[in-house]
Amino acid sequence: MAAPYNATILRVVAADRPPFIYSNSSSPYGWSGLLVDLLPVVLALAGLNATLKFHKSPSNTGGVLQNGTWTGVAGEMIYGRADIAAFPFSQSWERLPFMDFTFPFDGRGLAILIKRPIASDAASVFTKPFAPSLWVLAGCTVIGFALVLNILSWMSPLGNYKVVRIRNMRTQAEEQRYVLQDTSKSYLVDVLMTLNQNAPMPRSRSWSIRISSAGFYFFMIILISAYTANFTSVLTANQLIPTVTSLQDILRSNESFAVNSGGGYYTYMTQSTDAQILTLQPQLKTANATIGGVEAVRSGRVIAYITELPSLIYFAGLKPCDLEVVGTPFGPAVLVMGLQKNSSYTKPINTAMERLKANGYLDTLNNKWIYNSSQCASILGQEDEAGALSLDDFSGLYLVLLHIILISSLWVAFEKSALVVLSRHPRLAENLAALRAAFRRRKKRFDLVRAFSQSHETANSANWWRAVYRAIARKYVSGAVAVKFCRAGPLPEFRVRPKSPSAANRPDMRSFLLEFNLGSNAPNATDRS
């Protein structure tokens, strides 16, 4: 039963049909959209001071007649469970005997939605995966990070030089000298080398530069991988997407297209007497509401989706901007709201709708919800940056890179603090040096034995001893090292016993700190004759 004209509460049934109406928990009504803005204005203009109480249709559809029963929004209206339908109905002869309709709030006809073709410009197609702003930022990041490495190298006590040990091996002199050798290089070249996934790390003795370089390499791997994946999709889409601008193009393509199941558009496509529509019927598929049709086009299941023009303009304007509306509007697509049959609200609401159409308020709502809400540069067949990755897609990755640079800066402070501590506590420095020397000797023993084993496996009996002596020469070690080798029996034991440097010739604390932080390369610091 319809509510009386002076009712204080109006029951409004709705279903998701962006941009006309969609669920929104933050809205006062629990819904947002063009019709949610329109309905209170219409009621106020019609002199109706009633509270709107929205509820969702059980099937979230407009509704069709199935086995003698109406479903969806139409069913809620016809069976008296709602007073007015905030839903973009198409005026169809099937519903007309059972419902009243308002005057149209839109009547621009049907249109065709396709996946946007990608321009086949061979000279610039490689730039399509990234938006221009992202290209600019990536270039600035490379130059900026090279500057960061130079600053860290300048601030760190280990950044620009290394310890080189010089000893006269010919005379077996005990005296050893330690010098600082400058290792500054072009960090810009090192940063550019990250474009090669097998690029070496910068040869810095400071862990601050190593940490930041590792973070930047991670950043570049993600960036290059994203570019490669998106570039592949650009090339694939450029080859697979055909160009469709009309119903005739759909017919020639022999591909499927979609319309919403049930409702006036499905009736038009299946019962029309137009010859062109009749020839398209074998290619027809149905979609579950507008969102289902849009996803069918985007995924490639159908070549096109046909529905009212305003809805297609809205969805073509949403990111990732890979859809466009083509062709000239056609067919019946007069959008109205529904009321109960013979409702007392029909006449005053229709009068208010005519006034809102005349004063331009309907055009204002169309601009707000359809055209001005577009997130894309163009939606009607003009070229824009479809599918290009933007700054927003990499904001998290840049945040990670900034945190890594911060950690590297803190490590520089640690290196400077360690220098002060070791300078003030020589005994601590000596103990750390002894511990490090023990690890060096163990590593050298392992390397020497491995070198002997390789020589034994590859050399024949005639030059075996020569290969052994060459291995000894290549793997000279400090400290007593015993190497036992077997070739058809036990062999003599070789011992290399170089003299240790005197305590008077030890490096100062600054040189010690530099050598201590050299890692695995420090034990074999350059020996020069």
Automatic annotation (TrEMBL):
Q: Where is each Ionotropic glutamate receptor C-terminal domain found?
A: 9-372
Report the membrane topology from the UniProt record. Answer: Multi-pass membrane protein
- Provide the transmembrane region boundaries: 29-48, 134-155, 207-229
GO terms assigned for molecular function: ligand-gated monoatomic ion channel activity; signaling receptor activity
Q: What's the chief localization of this chain?
A: membrane
Q: Which InterPro entries match?
A: Glu/Gly-bd (IPR019594), Ionotropic_Glu_rcpt (IPR015683), Iontro_rcpt_C (IPR001320)
The cross-references to Gene3D superfamilies, in alphabetical order and at most eight, read: 1.10.287.70, Periplasmic binding protein-like II (3.40.190.10)
Protein name (database record): Glutamate receptor
Q: Which organism is it from?
A: Klebsormidium nitens
